[in-house]
Amino acid sequence: MKIIKDRPNKVKFLGEKDMTKKDTDLSAVEFIEKHYPETAREFKQIQDEQYETFCKKQMDYGPSNISMGTGVGESVNKKLATTALTIRINDKVQRLLNLVVSNDREAQNEPVEDAFKDLSVYGIIAQIVRNGKWGI
Questions:
Q1: How crowded is the C-beta side of 101, counted as CA atoms within 13 Å?
Q2: DSSP 8-state code for residue 7
């Protein structure tokens, strides 16, 4: 274990959070991890699970399902791909509105949680497409 000395008589281990900082000196990440550690851990765990699911689905589908066969990277028709993603996002939002808001009932096909997961991943995919990094 590597030890870093940052002050006399105070030893800090590498990777250890400095919990002596004032809240006003903390970054947003440090603040949340300090005050809401369970929420922060759960957020990271969900992200990891969603990334793994994303990778598995992309192995099955390939990048063309998002790019609509228009190419990859900068050559993707961003408007078409973003429109298709917006339609998929709208489908999920409409499903949630129907199940949670309008009818307050359990889903018959896939859990409501899956719609929330899909929304999260589609939002990230849309950013990747718009950044010209899809499929490369």
A1: 6
A2: E
pTM summary value: 0.78
Widest distance between CA atoms in the chain: 62
Q: What is the pLDDT of residues 7-48, one digit of tens each?
A: 455 544 455 566 667 889 999 999 999 999 999 999 999 999
Give the DSSP letter string of 66-104: HHTTS-SGGGS-HHHHHHHHHHHHHHHHHHHIIIIIIS-
Q: How far apart are CA 132 and CA 62, in angstroms?
A: 16
Q: How many of the other CB atoms lie within 10 Å of CB of 58?
A: 14
The residue extents of the domains of the chain are 18-61, 63-136
